[in-house]
Write a structure and sequence with these properties.
The chain contains three helices and five strands, in the order ββαβαβαβ. By secondary structure, it is of the alpha/beta class. It has one domain. The strands form two sheets. It has a three-stranded mixed beta sheet, with helices on one face. Helix 1 (53-58) links the parallel strand 2 and strand 3 (69-73). It starts with 26 loop residues before the first strand and ends in a 13-residue tail after the last strand.
């Protein structure tokens, strides 16, 4: 991402700047935490195409590539494709490692991609129901 300011010596009459048609300051972060406080692997969605230069050359070269899921989308939005990737690469591994024998529910805001037919199908396959209305969620607290 290009910086918003350029530094140069006071009094200079020319400042060299660099900008590309692909530059953007937009990124979407998909973050999740369990009721126990464990964080799921974060997903960052950058502006670009899924098979473009950023996705092919820049993201794989980042040292943090194993700590997060990084993908591209033309507007840097969460869409059906990236929601499917989040389920496969963030939710499912979490459920496999920490969700054995525990009841799970996925609470999402009412964003369209969160409740598309394909997302509902993928979440149903995990056995983790999805909810958007907090009044329908029933939390219980253990006294042990």
């Amino acid at each position: 991402m290009q910086p918003k300011r350029t530094l140069n010596l006071r009094g200079e009459t020319t400042i060299n700047g660099r900008n590309t048609s692909n530059s953007t300051n937009r990124v979407t972060a998909s973050l999740a935490v369990s009721a126990s406080g464990r964080k799921l692997k974060p997903m960052l969605i950058f502006k670009g195409t899924s098979d473009g230069r950023i996705a092919r050359t820049e993201l794989p070269a980042l040292p943090q590539r194993n700590e997060l899921v990084m993908v591209c989308q033309e507007a840097a939005w969460q869409d059906d494709n990236n929601m499917a990737k989040w389920i496969d690469l963030c939710l499912v591994p979490y459920l496999q490692e920490y969700g054995q024998g525990a009841a799970a529910i996925l609470y999402l805001d009412a964003f369209t991609a969160h409740f598309s037919a394909s997302t509902k199908g993928k979440t149903a396959d995990t056995g983790c129901p999805v909810e958007s209305d907090p009044s329908r969620m029933h939390w219980t607290r253990s006294t042990h």
